[in-house]
What we know:
Shape: globular
Distance between the termini: 29 Å
Order of helices and strands: EEEHEHHHEEEHHHHHEEHEEE
Number of domains: 2
Main location: cytoplasm
Family: Belongs to the GHMP kinase family. Homoserine kinase subfamily.
InterPro entries: GHMP_kinase_C_dom, GHMP_kinase_C_sf, GHMP_kinase_N_dom, GHMP_knse_ATP-bd_CS, Homoserine_kinase, Ribosomal_Su5_D2-typ_SF, Ribsml_uS5_D2-typ_fold_subgr
Organism: Ectobacillus antri
Catalytic activity: L-homoserine + ATP = O-phospho-L-homoserine + ADP + H(+)
Amino acid sequence: xxxxxxxxxxxxxxxxxxxxxxxxxxxxxxxxxxxxxxxxxxxxxxxxxxxxxxxxxxxxxxxxxxxxxxxxxxxxxxxxxxxxxxxxxxxxxxxxxxxxxxxxxxxxxxxxxxxxxxxxxxxxxxxxxxxxxxxxxxxxxxxxxxxxxxxxxxxxxxxxxxxxxxxxxxxxxxxxxxxxxxxxxxxxxxxxxxxxxxxxxxxxxxxxxxxxxxxxxxxxxxxxxxxxxxxxxxxxxxxxxxxxxxxxxxxxxxxxxxxxxxxxxxxxxxxxxxxxxxxxxxxxxxxxxxxxxxxxxxxxxxxxxx
Length: 306
């Protein structure tokens, strides 16, 4: 039996959490796994049905990222064969592209012995993704709150414990570019003040783990959800449902179309059972917040790649 040289594991993520647009991310219990084998060419083999049809050569996002990192550091990426499995659905707003970018960074970091810092990984991931929320959550795990100015990302990282998630995942895809196309080019000064105030409230509530207050802030987003709601009937449906005592709030996951409900610890299974009949065309499942980010697994130990 041939064993991989190492395995890369990267969690998926949700972003925005309502008004935290392009600046808040949370790692979730869906994963991208990559077994890395030596080879005489670059080849990517999908091992799960969800990844069927992804490019197998260096045009794959994993290799594109890895090769870009190698070029940035002036090193040569060795050929390798990747066996990839994932339960992160594509084009649903659950961080599939960000997880691939972080995995590509980890791939070059290990194969080329770069010993990259977390900040270096974050900066490169943010450049490639265009913002830091999903890549930051997949890299660090837990909750990340930060900003990216086009060159350097900064964030605050915190573990989250007293929370579960119920994900409502539609069968249809929504490209981020389409979801961004409906956003207004500008907001008035008054709207910007109101929107940033709600976002500030969300951040303060998250860092205190005051989930009732955080859930209320999620509903008052002015930055993106009111515009994207026309694409996503599931979000509209949640707005019309009576308040649930175990549900703190809900928010579009990234650009959507998945919607996440933020639920009292221990209550997610019952909320899932109650909500599933209302969303028969969707996967309705329980997810957990994961406080561990990307990691590299060798044959004899698990290490955090630094």
